[in-house]
Amino acid sequence: MSSFIEATHVKAVGSHSYSGFFPEEWCIGSVPHGGYVTSCIQAIASVHFNTTLKAQQQPHAMTVYLTFLRRTSTGPATFTVTDVKLGRQISTIHVSLTQGSGREEVVGYITHTNMATETGISLPTNWSLHPAPYPAEVPLLRANHDEHWRNYSEMPFLSFRKASAKIEIFIPRTGQLDCSMVDEWIRFKNGEKFTMDSLGYVADAFPQIVESFREHAQGSIPWQHRKGNLWYPTVLLNLEIKKVLPPAGVEWLFVRVRAKQIKNGRMDLEVVIMDDVGGLVALSQHVCLIVGADRNLAKRREVAGNGESKL
After folding, report:
1. In principle, which of 60, 78, 119, 239 could form an S-S bond with 64, CB 3.0–4.6 Å?
2. 0.90 exceeded by pTM
3. Which residues 6+ apart lie within 8 Å of 128 measured at CB?
4. What's the average pLDDT block by block, 10 residues per block, for the chain (311 residues)?
5. What DSSP character marks residue 147?
6. Judging by beta carbons within 10 Å of its beta carbon (0-12, 13-18, 19+), is residue 123 exposed, middle or buried?
């Protein structure tokens, strides 16, 4: 079983070309987890800015914007980087992920900066989460003794959602504040720490909001999907990183996920990631589909001129 660091390891095969490998245990069904793939692309950008673009002195990812064109698959992956805009304050690269015979599956832009040297106007906004999450005492979470939070070990379909089994999830003991919302505290089960490159995975690692509606039989969910397994493929994911995590990483992160609209098999997700002292670490937005799990496991079909279709 590969650790997160091992599973996101990438190797330079040229100044603008990198290789990686997607293991089965980091999949949802047969498809590598979208957040895990995002972290692999973050790792590519980190290596690129620390080697090929080292002169830019911009080691920190500021934004990640990815479009998932087609299903990825386990096995070797090739990443091709194009330097789009190199600047004194920020620089942007384009990354293309291909597999098989050159099938392009994920494309996106990553912007780097140096957060240690940033200067400029800073103003208080008085922003806070609303409704406020339940308070937590992190030392008590470790022993599952926190008054307001409990270990969520009964996530449904974990054998299908293998990548989700890599973390311990703690949810409110009295239930989520709303069916359209998930609050959680998370940490890696194997003791690894969350680093900057793992924020893509964190932004996509949570109990699915649709499951809350199914549990309470709310909304227009066809009867055949009320108990069956569903798949929530990511179409688009963007990530804005607000804070540099310590080089050694952090054990715990708090995540709030909220959907504004779930309609016609499509939903948006707004993700807020915070550290254990309430600091804002990252923001993320997703566009996802809601389909049966059979779509995940179905044989890949070729579409003339475009390669394999996403679904």
Report:
1. 239
2. yes
3. none
4. 95 98 96 98 98 98 98 97 98 97 96 97 96 96 96 86 95 95 97 98 95 68 59 97 96 98 96 97 98 87 56 62
5. S
6. exposed
**What stretches of the chain show up as alpha helix (H) in DSSP?**
4-7, 34-50, 138-142, 199-202, 209-215, 294-297
Tokens of 245: 């995590």
Q: Which amino acid is at 84?
A: V
Long-range contacts of 97-105 (CB under 8 A, 24+ apart): 97/37, 97/41, 97/72, 99/72, 99/73, 99/75, 100/73, 103/70, 103/307, 103/308, 104/69, 104/70, 104/307, 105/68, 105/69, 105/70, 105/71, 105/72
Q: 129: which 2 tokens?
A: 């989460």
The neighbouring-strand residues paired with 169 are 186
What pLDDT, in 10s, does the model give residues 34-79?
Answer: 999 999 999 999 999 999 999 999 999 999 999 999 999 999 999 9
Q: Hey, what are 153's tokens? A: 């070990």
